[in-house]
Amino acid sequence: MNKIKNIGVLTSGGDAPGMNAAIRAVVRAGIYYDLKVTGILRGYEGLIHGDFIEMDRKSVANIIQRGGTILKTARSDAFRTKEGRAEAHRQLVNQGIDALIVIGGDGTFTGAHLLTTEFDYPVVGLPGTIDNDLEGTDFTIGYDTAINTVINAVDKIRDTAESHDRLFIVEVMGRDSGLIALRSGIGVGAEAIMIPEANMGVDGLVTRLESGRKDKSSKIIIVAEGDEVGGAFNVGEVLKEKFPHYDIRVSVLGHIQRGGKPSCMDRVLASRLGVTAVEGLIAGQSGVMVGQKNREILFTPFDHAIKHIDAKEITPAWLKLVEILSL
Ligand code: F6P
Known about the structure:
Layout: E1 6-11, H1 19-32, E2 36-40, H2 43-48, E3 52-55, H3 82-94, E4 99-104, H4 106-119, E5 123-127, H5 143-164, E6 166-172, H6 179-188, E7 192-194, H7 201-211, E8 219-224, H8 232-242, E9 247-252, H9 264-282, E10 288-293, E11 296-301, H10 302-305, H11 316-325
Parallel strand pairs: 1-2, 1-4, 4-5, 5-10, 6-8, 6-9, 7-8
Antiparallel strand pairs: 2-3, 10-11
The structure holds 6-O-phosphono-beta-D-fructofuranose.
6-O-phosphono-beta-D-fructofuranose binds at residues 14, 129-131, 173-175, 225, 258.
């Protein structure tokens, strides 16, 4: 028997394009299955403070195409404490919310895992992060849009780099993950990518540039913000010393990568996963993230989703591909 009558939905951590499409799917699926849906503002922080709003089909009209999150988001220090989580649980019970859907990344799921285990409270997660650094799904909601934002920006940088015969070091997001750098680097035809998982180091980059073609008029190096060298400006300093003849510029793309209209891939992924999250809760799922792998929907326990064990596609074969293509 289905005991769930009222589900809460929140977005937490860094926002990602497609979060609104996910909220819309959760709300519409909830209504479809005769559930009440309560929106929680500003993630776990808003939950602790009881910032609730009732959601209806109209409250999610016209948002599928919008970046950001209408529920707003936050990173909550209070929720990291047991007292904070106890208060959050108290708010949920007081509000009559029987189960929760959280949309976010590894920080969000770390919190969700604790909420389910400490209070035996049903929570299902949706992978919403531009970083794509979660197990249990080929792609996270927001990643496709973010890498397209990166390639659009770097294509423009390539135009000016080519005109001036310059070497550009472009820093992309990914505090702990090089997945944005890897795909976008291949997409823009980068001469090299530097990512935390590959540990190329500046020496490796210098060797790559020394052995590379000398007649290229522009060069693009993509650096993930989490790379051990410490960001694009540090890489730029080292390269300026080693290659004084190069005209070097640095460009940090920053938060433009988190905004903008979600791509169709992200809208569809968010819609499919959002509906499945509601159906999963109704069927008794809890403590799991819903994801899509090889086109199949699957549920992965939170503590596994955040483990970064497969490091996804960052395999030697992909790194070799970057090297081959940069000839
Ligand atoms: O959303 C993930 C992420 O974009 C990381 O790649 C990045 O390091 C981080 O968020 C930055 O977030 P903020 O500026 O919100 O602290």
